[in-house]
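Pilot study result, target chain (213 residues):
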Amino acid sequence: MKKKRIDCSLRGAMLLLWAFCCLPIWAQADGARDILRRTADAFRRAGGIRADFVVRSPEGDASGTIRLKGEKFVLEAGGMTTWFDGRTQWTYLPSSDEVNISEPTEAELQTLNPYAWLALYDRGYDLKLLSSDASGPYKVEMLSRSPEAQVSRLVLWLDKSGLQPVKFSLNLAGSVEPTVITVSDYRAGQTYPDAMFTFNPREYPTAEVVDLR
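Predicted structure:
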């Protein structure tokens, strides 16, 4: 059976997170790298996280929720649910009562989980601090050095007090208009069992399983 294609707006929506004063280019990069490093550290210490979000993309608008624990996540958006346990991914499509099983690449995970960018800021991207109001969030631009990257440009906004992500703006390859993800609610310190991040067939007894590994 052919693999079901995930809706572009959902993939753009899940693509997961950073404002600074004007400085010389070298200082901008160093400052942006330091902010992202501290943000990644804060994210790792946060334990379980729940984030509600709204997505605005060229394909349309959507809303959803993501729950995270380290590399694991459960994503609910666009009527679909995706589970990832650190290696295997399950995506349930209610319209066809079908669940697709795969082992996504790092690049594919970036299009589903925007928080994955917190571990990628120092891999193949040029960083730059963007100006903002003194009382506003931090804002960092990431530009890919590779013309083949799925995301060519990413801008991240971070709350200054807790380094929590508040907005993402992503330019996907071949798309002129960015996809903008706004976090409406962010809760850290949540307790999630590992079983939450795997598909439970007993809860979907009629679903057809399509193994794409």
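One observation from the pilot: The two ends are 13 Å apart (CA to CA). A full batch analysis is planned for the follow-on phase.
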